[in-house]
Design a protein that fits this description.
Layout: H1 13-44, H2 47-55, H3 57-78, H4 83-111, H5 115-137, H6 145-166, H7 171-195, H8 202-228
Helix pairs in contact: 1-4, 1-8, 3-4, 3-6, 4-8, 5-7, 5-8, 6-7, 7-8
Amino acid sequence: MNNENILVSNATDIERASFYKKTYQHLALAVLAFILVETILVKTVPIEVIAWMLGGRFIWLFIIGLFWLGTTMSNKLAYHPSKDKQYLGLGLYVILEAVIFLPMIVIATVYAGGDILMQAALTTSFMFAGLTAVVFLTKTDFSFLRTLLVVGGFVALGIIVVGAIFGFNLGLWFSAGMAVLASASILYQTDQIKNNYGTQQYVGASLQLFSSVMLLFWYILRIFMSRRN
């Protein structure tokens, strides 16, 4: 077996196909692990803890800070030379996402009906498949999206922090804008995977895709829930 970390764009067709297969297999496993961990949390975490997570503006600022710290750590671990450390990074990120999603999953299930989760998940899956196809079936260079993602990410974070401090609802248009930003992130990351990753970086590649897929799912779910109110 060839364990050399060759640039995907320079790899043979067989090596490239193997990299893509491993990347999307790990993405699928991360999603399944998220579902499993989320199910365990929903069944075991006391409702008082979930209410506490929902009850304060500054609590969410703390959670966002913790999530940012964990995300940074996970990304570093995902690119570590050791495969064990890479899997540790991916696993940590899955757990963080499950914790962040817990209050909204409970709200969606109790107040908006469990079917809304399936609708949001299917919509996210179709959007992800379509965006992936755009990158692989066209010769468009999506590297230009990097600046948009960096600026958009900082602007979005600022709006979220200000909203948490002053307690105003970010609304449907913010969710729609964030869904667009998550879609742009999927385009950019898929383009990077196609052109700038090494054939042994499939764990890190799956983590990057997983982060964007979950961001898209978060805001698609928020959009669907707003329609039920």
